[in-house]
Amino acid sequence: MELTVTPVTRAGTVRSVPPPALWGFLLLLGALFVGAYVVGNAVGPVAPGMHAPGITGGTPPGEQDAPMHHGGGH
Fold first, then answer.
1. Per its UniProt entry, which superkingdom is the organism in (predicted)?
2. In degrees rounded to 5, what are phi and psi of residue 57?
């Protein structure tokens, strides 16, 4: 008796492998996020007065009582 592999038997053992283009895209996406994180960490805060979440005391002592005029047309 000779054993042969039928398409039904072979289909049950074949694993689905993502295409290489998907792996390349994921690698490129990861590199983009890492690069953006490194550049953002090197540049620092974008706006004046921004600081890390652990630091308190956001207003300098001389500006605590200063009125805020936002140009509302008044």
1. Bacteria
2. 80, 70
CA dist., res. 5 & res. 26, Å (int): 36
AA identity, residue 19: P
Q: CA-to-CA distance for 4 and 53, rounded, in angstroms?
A: 66
Vertex 35: Cα angle to 48 and 21 (nearest 5)? 145
Q: What is the pLDDT of residue 39?
A: 95
69 Cα distance to chain centroid: 36
Contacts of 49 by beta carbon, 8 Å cutoff, 6+ apart: 58
